[in-house]
Amino acid sequence: MFAASALLAVCAANTGCGDDDEFSAVDNQKPTIALEADEIHWEFARKFVVKAKVDDADGIKAINLQNKDLYLNKTIDILRIYGDTVKTYNLEYGITAPDSLKTEAFPILITVEDLVGNVSAVTFNANMDGDFTDPKFTQEPGEVINVIMSAFNFKFAVSDNRVIQRVTVSFPDLNINEDITNDSKTYEYKKTISLGDENRDYKGVIAAYDAYNNKVEKEITISKGELKDYDRMYLCDVETEADLISDVCGVPMLIDHSGEFEYTALYYNAAAGTKVRFMPQKNSFEPICFGTDPSNAAMFTPDPAQAQPIVLDQAGVYYKIVFNTKQGTYTTSTYTVDDAADPIPHKLGTASLNTWCSGIWNKETGEWETSDAWWQDFNVGIMTDNPRNVTDFFEYNPQNKHIIQILNYHLEKGNFEFHPHNWHHDGWWDYCTWKPEAATETEPDIWRYVGQYANPAYEAQANKYNNEVEVGNHAKLSIPKSGNYDIIFDTHLGRMKIVPSK
Known about the structure:
29% of the residues are buried. It is flat and about 100 Å long. It is mostly beta strands. The strands form ten sheets. A seven-stranded antiparallel beta sheet has the order 22-19-16-17-18-23-24, with no helix packed on it. Strands 10, 11, 12, 13, 14 and 15 form a six-stranded mixed beta sheet that branches. Strands 3-9-8-5-6 form a five-stranded mixed beta sheet. 4% of the residues lie in helices and 50% in strands. The chain has four domains: 3-127, Immunoglobulins (Immunoglobulin-like, Sandwich); 136-224, Macroglobulin (MG2) domain (Immunoglobulin-like); 233-335, Immunoglobulin-like (Sandwich); 350-500, no CATH class.
């Protein structure tokens, strides 16, 4: 159904009136209806306002607005509201057309009756073919693109709620100045750019425009140079760029920068045959992707056209992969799920959280020494406001006790702010909780455990994180479209991914 509201000023008490024949005609003419505009070009799900000035010397009895597609049949009873003769009325009526409707044109019939029975009608045309929303990048290049090869594949993708009409790409020093016409909601740009052997920067601008000239624009620097000691490196376990950019967060997965040109990846391998590669950028395999060299499988290459994935052939274990990008060397090893640790202080789904207690907590046994405790069920879930209101709970992954998950979780398009927290009867904040790093709130890479209670074996690490993370951090995610998502959280690694359910 649609949402609508009348913007009315009720200026007098309802005193009641008699029948129409109690009113005498002044000029016995039909009411005049002066629309502020005959039509409007608007967007679905955005409120618009019908405005008109209504005049009648005999007095206005009622105003009616109708459109069957909007389920609109609203009568504003002027006589009842004001209880007196109103000869001039400024109509302002707000309406929202939901995007679930099939048509775009909504003629709204406005009918006015005066106190002696004269009637006038006009039509206001609400057309939902307008566009107030800027296009957006669905595959966005970084502000600085570090390229070490003499050529690379430059790509980006954009979308709009109605149409991408034009895309421009300009890199003057590379003799690139393109103005591309388009006639669909999406556009994907791909171009192999040759840079030669000179190490230098090339500055440019990319932009996309819709039919109403709304735009998204970004300045890009292509930096041809030597291999850098990247601050961030990501493990990628998907094979297509569509999967790489379809996540809400967590794909690809950030790994540790463990030394100069050295990176360490810890990864749980659920099934044998998983293929992994490594990239310093998040949204594309270009321009740098590390994998094994096809001419020497014991060495790494950064060339995305050559890099082959490492195949993880042991299932149900954690892999540790250490590699040096400058030397091109790498090693792999494994450790078991039982050898891994996580900070969760109790077993999910058990009556193990002591809400009222006069005893002593025994760190060695991980139990309360008390006889008068009240134990509540310990569950961790999605917290958006208060620990008392946590109702969507994680469950254990059957193969790994360190992975908790909520599958087929429905999320609406738009903003979603949360962090994992345990339910608590008395609303104890930060009993068991994780927060994202402040720099990655909109797309969390690492979740730090900052709970006040932790698995005793993990307590030192938990205290360290408490000092590193801002306590108030929530993940502030953007959900691209409404649907079901899988929320999969590895509490040993502090890594979460939210991906469309399959």
